[in-house]
Amino acid sequence: MTPTLVRHHSHAETSTQVDSGNRARDWAEIQERMLAPLYEAVYERLEVGSGTRLLSLGCGSGLALLIAAALGARVTGVDTDLERLAIARTRLLPDPDCDAGPAAGRPRLLEGDPSRARPSDGTPYNLLTAFTPIGCSSDDGEELVAALRSAVPLAARGSTVVLTGWGPPERCATAPVLRVAGRLSDRDRASRTGGWRPSGRDDLEELAFRAGLNPDGSGRVACPFGYADLDSAVRGLLSTRLFDAAVRATDRAQVEKEVAEALHPHRRRDGTIWMPNVFRYLVCTT
Asked: pTM here?
């Protein structure tokens, strides 16, 4: 599975008021697939298959789980975003009346803290993933450390943990667009989360050490962001939640306007938007 230019999706919302359900659909329909190369590269490196018991932290709308399940893995996902989780349930549990339970390998999707994801059959996980790249806000590292401390006790000793982050800003064409979030959110001096900030070279390693993990290799994956038109690009990027603080500090219309302006250098003659990016992942052991 590779990223594609995403067709235009139209909703009836105004530019200043978008409910979280629409934003979750924008994430699932437009943006999430841009990270598919990252998921696939990690799974290939770790030889994910029928022997894999995967716990995904921040599983979102479930694409990474869907790919792992197709490889034969037994998958569990946790997230705090109810709208994204509802989409994941539709994707992975299409028949809510199915009698197959966790013991039969049915995916599990749970709301809230990872501690709720205790294996139902007592067999510990052997792979934990955190595919939401750090750097989305000033405190997402703290949140991930807390999630890992809850999740690691559910995994077998020596299990694999994968952390992810943005690559160097000079190799991420989307970086100048994301800086709009930081600039606009900085207008709100009371904002604690701020906007996107570029990841440092050793941020993933530092986070791993804080969570009590042992780094054991890393890799970089090209994840270009491609959109069919400017509107899809704006909606896809705003669905990432990287611009939430900017919307709070100004308003959605202002954020949409400035994001659209920042996207113009990446607009091709046919109206499509194309931005090459690199993401980094760190493989650790418990």
From this structure: 0.88
